[in-house]
Specification:
With about 200 residues, this protein is an alpha/beta fold. It has a single domain, classed as Rossmann fold. The chain contains 7 helices and 5 strands. It has helices at about 15-25, 35-45, 50-75, 85-100, 115-125, 155-165, 190-200, and strands at about 5-10, 30, 80, 105-110, 175-180. A 5-stranded parallel β-sheet has the order 2-3-1-4-5, with helices on both faces. The longest helix is centred in the N-terminal third of the chain and has 24 residues, at about 50-75. The N and C termini lie close together (about 10 Å).
Length: about 200
């Protein structure tokens, strides 16, 4: 297996984590690093009293993410990472992969935005969703039985604005495979996994 970084990019609600798990099952020697998991860990550790403090923790989380990614690269570990990547992350990722001679595959997941908003809403209301994503202030001790009462839920107009202006649907680094997941039942994941296998081993 060549030293590789697989970026699962694209809009929120496209099933990036699901796809990451499929790839990790088929290729168990690949490591996994999630920016969101790092954010959630920092939110639990430090908490935030307002959106400014939350943003500072997000910036800290990205520094932690790049540091951990580089540690894995130094050991030659192939990695997979899922996030709605944009131009904000591209330069750092490009520099790291060039420095350590990693090939990059971007799998960009896209879908109809109205469908994705409904998926996002369902995800936010699920009790497995970390409250740090949904609140204006957060401490680990916080507990909310009903997520519908969260004070920072993403509204339709804001969701659409983010999707249309942040470049989620345009991001790519290295080789690009785009996958439409408007209808999950019609997605040919096995075919995609074969493309991933070819990328990792024969190109």
């Amino acid at each position: 297996m060549k030293k590789s970084l697989i970026l699962l990019a694209g809009y929120p609600g496209t099933g990036k984590t699901y796809l990451a798990n499929l790839i990790l099952v088929k290729f168990p020697n690949i490591g996994f690093l999630s920016p969101d998991e790092i954010k959630e860990k920092n939110w639990d550790q430090y908490g935030f009293k307002n959106l400014s403090e939350k943003e500072l923790l997000i910036q800290r989380s990205w520094k932690d993410y790049y540091h951990e990614l580089e540690m894995q690269f130094k050991q030659g570990v192939s990695m997979i990472s899922d996030y709605p990547f944009s131009e904000k992350q591209k330069e750092c990722l490009q520099q790291l992969t060039k420095k350590y001679a990693y090939q990059v595959l971007t799998i960009r997941l896209v879908a109809e935005l109205s469908v994705l908003y409904e998926r996002q809403k369902v995800r936010d209301l699920d009790h497995s969703r970390h409250l740090g994503h949904l609140l204006l202030s957060y401490q680990k001790e916080d507990r909310m039985v009903n997520h519908e009462k969260a004070d920072n839920l993403l509204e339709y107009d804001e969701f659409m604005k983010r999707c249309k202006t942040r470049g989620y649907g345009e991001f790519s680094l290295g080789r690009l495979i785009e996958l439409d997941v408007t209808d999950f039942s019609s997605v040919h994941y096995e075919e995609l996994l074969e493309k991933v296998n070819k990328f990792l081993n024969t190109e």
